[in-house]
Design brief:
There is one protein chain. The chain has 375 residues and is α/β, with parallel strands linked by helices. α3 packs across α4. The chain starts with a strand and ends with a helix. It has 14 helices and 14 strands. The strands form two sheets. It has a seven-stranded parallel β-sheet, sandwiched between helices. Strands 8, 9, 10, 11, 12, 13 and 14 form a seven-stranded mixed β-sheet that branches. The protein is globular.
Length: 375
């Protein structure tokens, strides 16, 4: 059984894990929040239980305290009912709130299951509202490690933030790489002609190089026009900041926004682009441990897109040996030089990115160790 206090299609590594777990177990039951109308095609032995009426994550965040509390309590009840119904051998909890939810009901279980916690993002108490569900979940997270049988993270650097001295089970490193089974369907060798499209996947906000890239849109680089595609959530306020800057530079027609969608639509858009933006210059724990945890970096590579990444010790440790990955400063001139280098050798760089993905930078390759352990 897999439980996530969100929608699985908003977390690609969760979808990848479910696909691999379906090869190991007779049945996989997914219990999730009903945040979007999903369209993912799961293996036939995967059964999806969506909790609650359709409500986006943003609507849930702005809901009243009473409604948020009821959603959490009813999720606990739904999870417990499914556990009693299916009596799973293994329960995989995919975020801090799912773990918190299970901690509320585990003493009521009339049987024993293996408990597996996968932490996809390190949560910092100072970044959440006091006395919120997330706040209580983070506060209780470390207390539950003594009950866990399995623990996994997408970045080795994050292990130091968890109480492994209180953990007696097995821990695994599972990078957030894309799946060959899914991404290979979208790959087509791409060529640069008269323009270059840069794509940013993820939550659009400051310190991702977007504002610096907008400064480049009015000009040509090696006689090529530059376009910017933003795929993912973006607040209205920040979108206005980007559009105002693009308007100031006379380049409003060279920036496109695509909001949240199901995961199956993400590679369709990126496959029409040439360069991936993977710049993470923020200094919080999550952003400074993203070398193997940022799925977008490797989703770009899967489609044959060379990438721009933030020039830091951490990211260089993971990407310096990848010829298709170019370190940049948070500066338009630095980014322009990297784009120029990519254009000059695009066909070769694109092929190398895709080859690296097929060879080892994919989810199936990394999950093999876990699958061997489970079987």
């Amino acid at each position: 059984m897999v439980a996530i206090y969100s929608h699985a299609e908003l977390y690609p590594p969760t979808l990848n894990a479910i696909g691999e777990l379906a090869k190991v177990f007779k049945q996989v039951i997914l219990v999730q929040r009903n945040h979007i109308e999903g369209n993912w095609t799961y293996p036939p032995n995967v059964f999806v239980v969506s909790h609650g009426n359709l409500m986006t994550a943003r609507q849930q965040e702005s809901a009243s305290l009473f409604l948020k509390s009821w959603l959490f309590i009813s999720f606990c009840m739904k999870l417990y009912a499914q556990i009693l119904k299916y009596r799973p051998n293994t329960i995989l909890l995919y975020d801090t709130i799912a773990l918190f939810s299970f901690s509320m009901i585990h003493r009521l279980m009339p049987f024993t299951s293996k408990i597996w916690y996968h932490n996809h993002d390190v949560s910092e108490l100072k970044l959440v509202r006091k006395f919120s569900i997330s706040w209580f979940a983070i506060k209780s997270e470390h207390k539950y490690f003594k009950y866990l049988n399995l623990f996994s993270v997408p970045a080795m650097e994050r292990l130091s933030y968890f109480p492994l001295n209180e953990f007696n089970g097995k821990h695994f490193f599972i990078p957030n790489y894309p799946s060959v089974a899914f991404y290979s369907k979208f790959y087509r060798p791409n060529k640069i002609t008269d323009s270059v499209k840069l794509v940013y996947q993820g939550h659009a906000s400051e310190l991702h190089g977007l504002e610096e890239i907008i400064e480049l849109l009015p000009r040509k680089i090696l006689d090529k026009y530059i376009y910017l595609v933003i795929k993912g959530p973006c607040t209205q306020d920040y979108r206005m900041v980007l559009e105002e800057k693009a308007r100031k530079f006379g380049a409003l027609d060279k920036i496109s926004f695509f909001g949240i969608s199901t995961y199956s639509e993400v590679p369709r858009i990126a496959a029409t682009c040439h360069i991936g933006i993977g710049i993470h210059a923020k200094s919080d724990i999550m952003n400074t441990t993203l070398g193997t945890a940022s799925n977008k970096l490797y989703e770009y590579a899967a489609l044959g897109l060379p990438i721009l990444y933030f020039d830091s010790t951490h990211f260089n440790q993971h990407l310096a040996d990848c010829e298709w990955a170019f370190p940049v400063k948070l500066d338009s001139n630095s980014i322009a030089k990297a784009i120029e280098s990519i254009i000059e050798d695009y066909d070769s760089l694109s092929e190398k990115a895709h080859t690296n993905f097929l060879k080892c930078l994919n989810y199936e390759f990394e999950f093999a160790r876990v699958r061997n352990f489970l079987t």
